[in-house]
Amino acid sequence: LPAILDGEIWCQGFSEPEAGSDLASLRTTARRVGDRFVVNGQKLWASGARHADWCLLLARTDPDAPKRKGISYFLLDMRSPGVDVRPIRNALGDSHFCEVFLDGARVPVESRVGAENDGWRVANVTLRFERGTSFAQHIIALRGQLRRLVKLACEGAGRFEDPRLRHRVGQLEANVE
């Protein structure tokens, strides 16, 4: 929580060029050298990466393993040498998305999340939480639609003299708030 209050920003280093929606076909490599991993590759569509302090990074640690088995999950300090973030400008000149180039970036072994080569499982857990919270936008939209429906019901209730109906509409309105 202190990091959130301090404004710490995170991005995801999952997507890569030429991988499309097949996340497991990533080519970024992480080779263990002593107490660090040396990371080389490129990430694409990293939202907010130019402002990020940290990156949730997927990299291939076992090139001989089956596609989903040789991936590890790392926490990458975006200020590390070998990390180059380049904004992707849209037609309006905005650059929310970025490319991240990794050229010999070093990640301490203790910044690996989970076991080596278990990154696919860890990433799936991350995505489940991410996608679960993204559902909040649908809840917010539904709440707005419900408010409009209750407002219409309240306006329509003004035509009725039945106090029970007015009371029930009042309850609905209070519950939406």
Describe this structure in words.
Helix content is 32%, strand content 28%. By secondary structure, it is α+β, with helices and mostly antiparallel strands. Strand 2 and strand 3 (36-43) form a beta hairpin. Helix 3 (136-157) packs antiparallel against helix 4.
State the helical fraction.
25-40%
Largest sheet: 4 strands, mixed
What's the tally of helices? 4
* Helix-strand string: HEEEEEEEEHHH
Structural class comes to alpha+beta
**3D shape:** elongated
Q: Please compute the radius of gyration using only Cα atoms.
A: 24 Å
Q: How many β-strands, per DSSP? A: 8
Structure summary:
This protein is α+β, with helices and mostly antiparallel strands and 177 residues long.
Features:
4-stranded mixed beta sheet; 4 helices; 4-stranded antiparallel beta sheet; 177 residues; 32% helix; alpha+beta
Show the helix and strand layout.
Elements: H1 2-5, E1 10-13, E2 29-33, E3 36-43, E4 54-60, E5 71-77, E6 83-87, E7 98-108, E8 112-113, H2 119-134, H3 136-157, H4 163-176
Parallel strand pairs: 1-4
Antiparallel strand pairs: 2-3, 3-7, 4-5, 5-8, 6-7
